[in-house]
Amino acid sequence: MKTLLYVMVTLFAMNCGSIQVAESSKMESPALPVSEETFTNGERIGDMMNYLASNDMKGRDSGSEGIEMAAKYIENYFKSYRLQPYFESYRDTLSNFKKPSYNIVGVVEGNDPNLKEEYILIGAHYDHIGTIGPENGDFIANGANDNASGTSTVLEMARYFGTQKTNKRTLIFALFSAEEKGLLGSKHLAKKLKEQDLNLYTMLNFEMTGVPLKDKDYFMYITGYDMSNLAEVSNKYAEENLVGFLPTAKEFNLYQRSDNYPFHEEFAVPSHTFCTFDFTNFNHYHKVGDEPELMDFEHMATLVNKTIPVIEGIANAPTQEIQLKK
Questions:
Q1: Distance from C-alpha of 20 to C-alpha of 34, rounded to nearest angstrom
Q2: If we measure between CA atoms, which residue out of 48, 44, 68, 49 comes closest to residue 58?
Q3: 2-316: CATH topology
Q4: Can you list the positions of beta strands (E) in the chain?
Q5: pLDDT tens digit string along 181-193?
């Protein structure tokens, strides 16, 4: 969310664990037990977050050694949970960034002979800003909330669908690089998929999901709330007021500031970002204080557990329920 920086600094002014690098065989999240009532738990999420946002990653700057570690972790995760590479490999090399950088893209084919030709893309960016000016001797911008949180959310959804295969429509899971450089990873992939004439139904993006909202009657919000009926459809499948409207998101036009937007531009389909950051509940955006110990892993697990039935409903509905509003 680099493009949010100046907006957020202004608003904040107004409102005034290192993990060692493991060999690839150990980079998979351990198979912790999950109850019959849930799809993930806080312990699983915590293990992922403590790795992805560790000091060893050096802030996951695009093209760095740190983000290469994260890329390998994601690849191993996809492979472990039976996602197929969408391209020849999981890596989608960016054509619009000088340093070697990769989106990591996996796919779970739909199980319906007709609906599997319709695609739902679920994404998050896994890069951050690397190292910055030191604060109390710390110079690593770990990027736990931004956006190891969204990455972990998408990975746990990928694990569920990769192993359960309950989706009639085909699901693409994409982790984007170079979001912090101007949405370059998502711009590259959106253009590439459009050139391939992909039949994209909707794009669902996850950004900064690490801390809960406060004093809201909904669990999370989507950017571009009034551009489609996604919130209404989501709440139907969640059987609760899961997705709401955050006025600040509209005020600062967050719809255009994350990886959903390139897919809106290329495909003109419903493309939204789910988020639980509301400018008041987290004070370490693009700072060294964006550390995993400040994240609420139980909240993150709850978000995954509440959202999987929504995705399942959208993926299995006989018609395309999510529609853009005129």
A1: 26
A2: 68
A3: Aminopeptidase (3.40.630)
A4: 84-85, 91-93, 102-108, 119-125, 131-135, 138-140, 170-176, 200-206, 220-222, 243-244, 271-275
A5: 999 999 999 999 9
